[in-house]
Design a protein that fits this description.
about 110 residues, alpha+beta, Alpha-Beta Plaits, four-stranded antiparallel sheet
Amino acid sequence: MYASTFIFKAGQYDDEFHRLDAQIAEAARAMPGYLGEETWENAQTGLIQNVYYWESEQALLQLIQHPTHLEAKSKQSRWLDGYRVVISKVLREYGDGALAMQAATAAK
């Protein structure tokens, strides 16, 4: 499993941002290999994290190369006060079972 974590600080959003953001999320959820997503916000720093989970690196690359994603990336400075992306290979996942497969159930 792979995780792509988009970490950013919000700036001024407009209608185009919301449209592209919704289209990217819809495209990701429709892609083979998409497992789910989670969003986190740190109120102290103002940072937001969107984490998408993927079966494979190839599945993740589909989103990275998607035309809507590329369009939003080219315009990000209009809406964000900085960002970074972390691509990770997940070696293992475990817990007490209460939250097991939380990411995968989001995709269903």
